User: Fold tRNA (guanine-N(1)-)-methyltransferase from Roseicella aerolata.
Amino acid sequence: MTWHASVLTLFPEMFPGPLGQSLAGKALRDGRWAIDSFDIRSFATDRHRTVDDTPFGGGAGMVMRPDVVDAAIAAALAAGPDRPAVYLTPRGRPLDQAMVRDFVAGPGLILLCGRYEGVDQRVIEARGLREVSIGDYVLSGGEPAAMVLLDACVRLLPGVMGAAASGEEESFSPKGRECLLEYPHYTRPAEWQGRAVPPVLLSGHHAEVARWRQAEAERITCERRPDLWARHIETAGRDRAPAA
Ligand code: SAM
Assistant:
């Protein structure tokens, strides 16, 4: 069955947007995934097509109404049941590659894109929405976050990436690199603007190359991401210093 994404948004014309290009776009045209968008405003019931209202308790901004959002979720579920419904929000669990793999293993996703101050809490609870954040910053709407999540998912769908191995070797992949950032890459020319490619990569010694890449991945992770490095040490039982 085709992996199916439904996006609930006030701006349905934003989709597929960038997801219609390049790798995700080709996969879409090849039928490896499908996307539809639901205009939340079309589920408003008053003649002004109101989707938001002022927050109880006062304060700035507007809140998306639970009844309107709920009707949009019901329509998406009717188009493809048994898919987890996700609300993109800075308050959510941070998106990571393990979560992406989990989403890819299922039949697809329903993605709710907030606007204004967000959606009424009751619809989050009533629908059991999974709250997911793409990072500790605030976007003006959930649409770019939905695109980020979908891009990360689509490239892992079977047959989407050219080389089957490329998803397994990269940052955050299983195969022992779960908590490591990727090592640096080089291609031709072997020397460019006085900068040479590390000689080991030209040596033809596969074991040495693998050792160098592991050491570089550890060095970069230790320098840039102490949080990941601490997890790597914990899971791999390594010393504090990266391999030489
Ligand atoms: N009042 C909210 C807060 O302080 O957490 C921010 C609302 S934001 C202006 C509007 C919408 O953008 C949110 O409802 C959410 O759907 C989306 N959004 C903003 N930042 C996001 C992030 N880091 N991850 C996922 N979605 C985000």
